[in-house]
Structure formats: structure tokens, C-alpha cells
Amino acid sequence: MKTILACCIVALTVSAATTTALAQAQPQQLVPAVPATKILAIGTLNPGIDQAAVRTILPTEVRETVGLYLAGKIDQWYSLQDRTGVAFILNATDLEGARDMLEKLPLGQAHLMHFELIRLGPLNPLRQLLGVTPTSP
Q1: Assuming Cys at both sites, which of 5, 42, 63, 133 could form a disulfide with 116, CB separation 3.0 to 4.6 Å?
Q2: CA pair distance 17, 86, nearest whole angstrom
Q3: What is the residue-wise DSSP string for 19-74?
Q4: In whole angstroms, what is the distance from residue 57 CA to residue 110 CA?
Q5: Beta pairing class for 38-45 and 85-90
């Protein structure tokens, strides 16, 4: 039994060493990057805010948000289903520019709402359907 256990330990050690050596010998393969084409902005009210202040500002917030939509800056907008807030798909690729735009809205100016910004791009795994393979550096 001790012999079998010792053989298994040696086999695992040799296997791990071989795998490490092979991984180091092969060049790292890179998947071509896709460009950011949109920004997902998830806006939620800050914790502990005054709800009366939100209700007072909300009509102006909605008018200015509609203005951004009509100007082509907001492509799509949704309400969050699991909490109070909004999700915008922005026609932007620059996070700082998007943050500046959203912070200029009335709820942002009043520090009542904050946004999480996420870059979006084409679905990169679709390259596999086209036969595009990873490239080496």
C-alpha cells in the first residue's frame, strides 16, 4: 500500500512539473480585443438620502434625462427591477466623459445618486464562429 501511495505522489509531482514546463515553453496566446462601443450606466440613490429631496428634484431630473435621450447621448433606458434606480445604455466610450455628463444631472448635482459605469463591446466569443483564432504576441 505504501508503494502504491509513493508511486501516486511521484506521478503527480512529475505531471505537475511537466505541465508547468510545457506552459512556460509555449507562447501565451492572446484573444484580439474588441472596442468599447457603449457604456452601461447603473444609477442608484445614495443610502440614507432624503426622499423628499429626491421627489422635489425628480421632475427636473426626468426633463434633463429626456433631453440627453433626444440629443442621442442615451440610447436606451430602463428601471432596475431589484432596487430603486435606472440603467442607461449610453452612446459613449469614454468613462470620464460619461461620468461628467451623468453627474451634471440634478440628482448628481445634489449628490443623491451615483452611477456604476461599465464599458460594453461586441461579444468577443463570436470570433470562434468566424474561425478567428487567438494570435501570439
Answers
A1: 42
A2: 51
A3: HHHHHHHSPPPBPPP----EEEEEEEEPTT--HHHHHHHHHHHHHHHHHHHHTTSE
A4: 9
A5: antiparallel
98, 41 Cβ separation under 8 angstroms: yes
C-alpha cell, 54? 429626491
For residues 10 and 78, the answer to whether their CB atoms sit within 8 Å is: no
pTM for the full predicted model: 0.70
Residue whose C-alpha cell is 452601461: 40
User: From the first residue on, what is the mean pLDDT of each consecutive set of 10 residues in the chain (137 residues)?
Assistant: 42 40 48 86 95 96 98 97 95 97 97 97 85 60
If you compute the radius of gyration of the chain from its CA atoms, what whole number of angstroms results?
25
The whole-angstrom separation of Cα 21 and Cα 24 is 5
Using alpha carbons, list the distances in angstroms from residue 8 to 5, 26, 34, 42, 110: 5, 27, 45, 52, 66
Q: How far apart are CA 51 and CA 35, in angstroms?
A: 39
